[in-house]
Automatic annotation (TrEMBL):
Keywords: ATP-binding, Ligase, NAD, Nucleotide-binding
Pathway assigned to this chain's UniProt record: Cofactor biosynthesis; NAD(+) biosynthesis; NAD(+) from deamido-NAD(+) (L-Gln route): step 1/1
EC number: 6.3.5.1
Protein name listed in UniProt: Glutamine-dependent NAD(+) synthetase
GO cellular component: cytoplasm
Domain CN hydrolase: 5-275
């Protein structure tokens, strides 16, 4: 006989420290779950405060506001008839834990602390929370007075255990715990837990989603059972975009899957599971039964509630569905564009300002804003009242609903081509055509007057006039003359961003967009405080190789055909300079290709290679090059990386997409003043190259000897 349960998970677009908004979205998700006849709902990690509060978690105010929000949940009828797993920061015995708070019928059932903290890459959880290292144990937690008065409870179980309902057993593992070798779901499954919930705060990274899904699929394939995954979705106030994809799996099959990228604030994912299918699946797996019989018991907390208690006519178990993945170009299109919308609507600003050069980087940024407009208009047409209200707030146009993406782009994006005597008509033409295809505002301005005025001011002080290198100037003069062009563009960008809405008869100011990619940041191939200095940068975590592929994709799929011309054009800064002809490309100027830069970046960060380790790795990868050439390339990379590392300290906040990002704020923590000659390391590189060359000579001689012996 079937024993059907309706279970629900969700994507929530929470915002760090927005307790009012976060609470409203939590309640909405619970009400949507109840409307879908679900009796169990799981939400994202730390959903009450928002995951990205960081050092605010060290403030008692944050913990108090969390309990105040829980009090609001307990006071109303939102948890009547449903078991809710809610993410919250909780202090127990003067220790702060990242917890799951189970609430049912206006009573707290259990508080479950996180056992494994995320402490690498972008994550620093041990700075704010302590891992629960007492294993599967429970102890008493005495509730705050305000909570006691509402739910008439004095204490509740605190620790890691399971909730024994009248018809099944439910438990939790949280985010990072899923990724550990000895994940809690193993012991929980062997201990008879049939439904496992995972409230997560997992950010987007290109090509990462499959790892997450495969872990959940493996967990439910080996152990059986149902697994609900909830996640935040959106920008909660920082560089990360939490990429949703709430899902429900059972016995290795995907039953329901939410979106990875969205402009919606709340998305519910629901499935119907037959508990008898879980029991049958497990019982037939005899090796599992042997291990389960010998497994130590998981402590349980009784809860007088049934997940299968709601009778719904015609209810059937959910059928397995195919797992959906975006290809990387779609990830680039929809992740940063959704992040841009969150940032804009929550910043209170009027729109975006972009210095559009007609090159690959700024064109990618413009295309992302255009895609943002497409997704926002689509949500408006689907009737999303939250999105419509946000559009009206951003544009300062009450009662207005855009009918096309071009209409919205005209309201929120200003692009300006900042020309100089070194600019070409082709780049201007591409910039103008792209703005036309997007539908945004477009202007052209000359910066020569600004740079001339600065040079004249300088000359009046020192009595000398600096010259470009092509006009006989020294290296110092040449670099200064190039850099003042780039920095003048930044000054003009901020000036125009504050005044363009006013000039158009409106109000508010614009956020300035940056367009430096991750490879140029790694190499330091940009001018400090030029147009890379901006408010936000949607492509700052994306490599040049992927950006080029994205431009091809957007040209074919998003209605911006001029991007084909952009990607086919060789990238050039158009700053002039000694020895830099009109046709000289950025790669020639850098002395290395973007493909090489991507490889260096991955080896430096992901493979954790220093100069010597990098040479040895590349000797196997780049078999078409001699060890001597490889050694020189590696030394050149580390030299330029080290002398430019100081630029990372002022890097514009950028969307995090690549796991070899050199972003200095928290992801890639290294010094910014280096001994750029790397004397010891480069000496060891030379020694390694010599050994590799000698080994290659021996192999070559051996081959020749073999060939002569067997003609």
């Amino acid at each position: 006989m079937s024993k059907l349960v309706r279970i629900a998970t969700c994507n929530l677009n929470q915002w760090a420290m927005d307790f009012d908004g976060n609470l409203a979205r939590i309640k909405e998700s619970i009400n949507l779950a109840k409307a879908a006849d679900a009796t169990f709902r799981v939400g994202p990690e730390l959903e009450i405060s928002g995951y990205g509060c960081e050092d605010h978690f060290l403030e008692q105010d944050t913990l108090n506001h969390t309990w105040e929000s829980i009090a609001e949940i307990l006071r109303c009828d939102v948890t009547d008839g449903i078991l809710c797993d809610i993410g919250a920061a909780v202090m127990h015995r003067n220790v702060c834990y990242n917890c799951r708070v189970y609430i049912c019928n206006r009573r707290i059932v259990m508080i479950r602390p996180k056992m494994c903290m995320a402490d690498d890459g972008n994550y620093r959880e041990p700075r704010w929370f302590t891992a629960w290292d007492k294993g599967f144990t429970l102890e008493d937690f005495y509730l705050p007075r305000r909570i006691r008065e509402i739910c008439k409870q004095v204490k509740v179980p605190f620790g890691v255990g399971a909730i024994a309902l009248n018809d099944t057993v439910v438990a939790t593992e949280t985010c990072e715990e899923l990724f550990t070798p000895d994940a809690p779901h193993i012991a929980l499954g062997l201990g008879g837990v049939e439904i496992i919930a995972n409230g997560s705060g997992s950010h987007h990274q290109l090509r990462k989603l499959n790892t997450r899904i495969e872990l959940i699929k493996s967990a439910t394939t080996k152990s059986g059972g149902a697994y609900l995954y909830a996640n935040q979705q959106g920008c909660d106030g920082g560089r990360l975009y939490y990429d949703g994809c709430a899902m429900i799996m059972c016995n290795g099959n995907m039953l329901a899957q939410g979106t990875q990228f969205s402009v919606h604030d709340v998305e519910l994912v629901v499935a119907t599971v037959d508990l008898e299918d879980i029991r049958s699946y497990r019982a037939a797996f005899k090796s599992r039964s042997v291990q389960a019989a010998a497994a130590p018991p998981v402590p349980r907390v009784d809860c007088d509630f049934e997940l299968s208690g709601i009778a719904v006519n015609g209810l059937q178990p959910s059928k397995p569905i195919s797992i959906r993945y975006h290809d990387p170009m779609e990830e680039i299109a929809y992740g940063p564009s959704a992040w841009l919308w969150d940032y804009l609507r929550r910043s209170g600003q009027r729109g975006y300002f972009l210095p559009l050069s007609g090159g690959a980087d700024s064109s990618s940024t413009a295309a992302l804003v255009g895609i943002m407009c497409q997704e926002v208009v689509k949500a408006c047409q689907e009737g999303s009242q939250t999105t419509i209200a946000d559009v009206q707030k951003v544009t300062r146009r009450p009662d207005w609903i855009p009918s096309t993406a071009q209409e919205l782009a005209k309201e929120v994006l200003w692009c300006v081509y900042m020309a100089s005597t070194h600019s070409g008509s082709e780049t201007e033409g591409r910039a103008r055509q792209l703005a036309l295809e997007i539908g945004c505002n477009f202007n052209k301005i000359y910066i020569d007057g600004i740079t001339t005025a600065i040079v004249d001011s300088f000359s009046s002080v020192v009595g000398k006039v600096p010259q470009m290198g092509n006009d006989g100037g020294s290296t110092a003069e040449d670099l200064a003359m190039q850099n003042i062009q780039a920095r003048s563009r930044m000054v003009m960008a901020y000036f125009m961003s504050q005044l363009m809405p006013w000039a158009a008869g409106g109000s508010g100011s614009l956020l300035v967009l940056g367009s430096a990619n991750v490879d140029e940041a790694l190499r330091g191939y940009y001018t400090k405080y030029d147009c890379s200095a901006a408010d936000v940068n949607p492509i700052g975590g994306i490599c040049k190789v992927d950006l080029k592929a994205f431009l091809w994709w957007a040209a074919a799929n998003k209605g911006y055909p001029v991007l084909e011309r952009v990607v086919q054009a060789p990238p050039t800064a158009e700053l002039g300079g000694a020895g830099r002809g009109a046709e000289q490309t950025d790669e020639e100027d850098m002395g290395m290709s973007y493909d090489d830069l991507s490889m260096f970046g991955k080896l430096r960060k992901i493979s954790r290679c220093g100069p010597v380790g990098m040479v040895h790795k590349l000797a196997h990868e780049w078999t078409h090059l001699s060890p001597t050439v490889i050694g020189e390339k590696v030394k050149k990379f580390f030299f330029y990386y080290s002398i430019n590392r100081h630029k990372m300290t002022t890097l514009t906040p950028a969307y995090h997409a690549e796991n070899y990002s050199p972003e200095d704020n928290r992801f890639d923590l290294r010094q910014f003043l280096y001994p750029a000659r790397w004397s010891w390391q480069f000496r060891k590189v030379d020694e390694a190259v010599k050994r590799l060359e000698e080994a290659e000579e021996l192999r070559s001689a051996k081959r020749q000897k073999t060939e002569h012996a067997h003609p």
